[in-house]
Design goal:
The chain is about 50% helix and about 20% strand. Helix 1 packs across helix 4.
């Protein structure tokens, strides 16, 4: 049973069926914040030439992380703010990814964590 659980944890954080998880340590931080019921805001920005931007607690989320979470169904649109930004929240599958990610992170040694934080 332990081998199966480890396999599931490694698969969920090392790669999804279609894409590799970008910057796994930072993605885990984003998922943790979203679990605390903090919405991610998506600001449409095509008019200014910059494209869409994503904010969480006032800090910009890397577009590759935000797009990955949206495309994989780990976060979903929950409506608009009064100013027109879209609010994104964690889905059930996003919560499962977070739980698996936390187990994966705890299973790593110090040097493995450091390597992942530096190299993604």
């Amino acid at each position: 049973m332990a081998t199966l659980q480890r396999f599931i944890i490694e698969c969920s954080m090392n790669a999804s069926p279609t894409h590799l998880i970008p910057d796994r340590a930072q993605t885990l931080v984003v998922l943790r914040l979203l679990r605390q019921r903090r919405p991610m805001l998506m600001l449409k920005g095509d008019d200014d030439g910059y494209g869409s931007r994503w904010l969480l607690d006032g800090q910009q989320v890397q577009p590759v992380i935000a797009k990955y979470l949206m495309d994989a169904g780990f976060i979903a649109d929950t409506g608009a703010t009064e100013l027109g930004a879209r609010k994104l929240a964690l889905t059930e599958s996003g919560t499962q990814l977070l739980e698996n990610g936390l187990l994966w992170w705890k299973s790593l040694g110090f040097l493995q964590r450091l390597r992942i934080m530096i190299l993604g």
